[in-house]
Design brief:
It is built from 4 helices and no strands. It is mainly α. α1 crosses α3. The protein is elongated. The two termini are 16 Å apart. The relative contact order is 0.17.
Length: 78
Amino acid sequence: MTPEERRLAIAYGNTFGTEQGAITLDDLRRRCYMDRPIMSSDLAELAAREGARCVYLYIAGQLAKAVSPDETQEEAEH
């Protein structure tokens, strides 16, 4: 992971790692069709739903990469 990618992942972790961030992330999860099918007979609606789902998956991916402050400190010491 490049320093810029690490910095971005940490920023996502800081943003969504709070109580308010968790509430926001849960709302995004529901709004981005993570808990229900995205199927629609309207192709434009289907594309919009898939786009929303991709945004949530991107955020979730950034959070998975987020480094805890302890890990950051350990890396700085090596």
